[in-house]
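Write out the bound-state structure for adenosine-5'-diphosphate.
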Amino acid sequence: MLKRLSLGPLPKNFLNTLLNLTANAQGDAEKIKVEAPFTGKPIGYVFDGGQVDVDRAFELSRQAQQQWAQTPVTGRKKIFDRFHDLVLKHRELLMDIVQLETGKNRASAADEVFDIAITTRFYVNNAAKFLNDKKRPGALPIVTRTTQQHVPKGVVGQITPWNYPLTLGVSDAVPALLAGNGVVAKPDLATPFSCLIMVKLLIDAGLPPHLMQVVTGSGEVVGGAIADQCDFLMFTGSTKTGRILGRQVGERLVGFSAELGGKNPLIVAKDADLDHVIAELPQACFSNSGQLCVSIERIYIEEEVYEEVVERFVRGVQQMSLGAGFEWSVEMGSLINQAQLDRVSEFVDQAKSAGATVLCGGKARPDLGPYFYEPTVLSDVPESAALRTEEVFGPVVFMEKVASLEMAVTKANDTSYGLNASVFASPETGRGVARQLEAGGVGINDGYAATWASVSTPLGGMKQSGLGRRHGAEGMLKYTEIRNVAEQRWVSMRGSAKISRKVYADTVATALRVGKILKILP
Ligand code: ADP
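---
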């Protein structure tokens, strides 16, 4: 394995190693360039996949899954335990790859690596507890023995976006695989190598080679073919694509979990620790250049502290260091590509012409790289500005003064999304506000990192921000079918032929009454 990468093309051998891990036929298939956003230059290519590649991937994964499902959880766990260690051991190379593909800064790349280690450790530590058979109280005490069993779904489809391609490339696959499934994954075409290097480390750790398949290609063709064949679909991406996929798998009555868009609010109460607010806001808004589904895009501030927060926050943002490269000192990297740069610029330009005030940023930085855009803070954003309600998915946040916390909560909830929300306040105020926020994750005195990294608790979106949850027991058990096995002994559920139906019904009624009083029924 290589130690580090440069900002240039991937070394040939390394590229070939990664390409050989895809299920794609390579001969005549079209090559699609993968570009480094830092420079706008190609770093390698992948093959454009189609239906036959997806068919082959499912065939191979299904074959491998038969035996994998018979492997005891203790045996499966050992592989992921080694994978955890390999991820940490090769972390510098992994950060290089993900920075090269996405143009993010090093700290955002490190977040991805650590997230994989944290999630993997959690599922290794808890897999047996979640997956082992559970004895449940039966229909009739003592007479009925009931067991809840978890059976793998089969082969799970995984479709992921470009923004966190290491983390999203593997951390949903880990619980799916540990639960006994195969996986067929489709990474975004902009960032295939991060997913492939994860598969390489999984195989190095001992995963059966064909169990996890990666097919590269377009969303519609490869993603659509995966949705047509998988036994469960895990999707992370836009609400628009989530709807298409939801319809597709719904038609086949196949399970679906999706983490989609957000327009995430953050509230600053007048009793907040303002030094802490100022220290945390840049990460909450500008990690990964704001290209993060849980990133903060709206800030509502109680009027008593509005001026101070705005003045100090803007001063800090103006001093943020931007740049291309692998150095730790860079605080914000590039956007991923021209389409993202155009999208972010259009949102800000439209808000400006609608009357918004640009407090800082608001322009591209071609001097740093082709897709850089300054961290941008806006105020006085009118209703007619699209970015008031639509997700920018870039380094753009607006601030608004509110007369009360009730008003802040009303505005925070006034959205079709419900992914992440945050409140900075005294602990007591914060807890009260948190209960009123309509979001799947709520940070108190934290933007999003604490909810994300608290992997024992399921996380996902309310409203149009998603379906289902990742992390926690749910994040693993959704990849299983429940088998309810009930063993009936000595007494039939139908009663006895020796007593009439009427007598039996009266006996059942008495038993239910007495059972309730004695609390011997579940
Ligand atoms: P983003 O805006 O974050 O790129 P998308 O929803 O467009 O979000 O893309 C997320 C993932 O979904 C990518 O891997 C993309 O290729 C895939 N995708 C896009 N359109 C479809 C589709 N119609 N069917 C299946 N997958 C798709």
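---
The chain has three domains: 12-131+149-260+473-480, 264-458, 495-522.
The CA atoms of residues 148 and 484 lie 5 Å apart.
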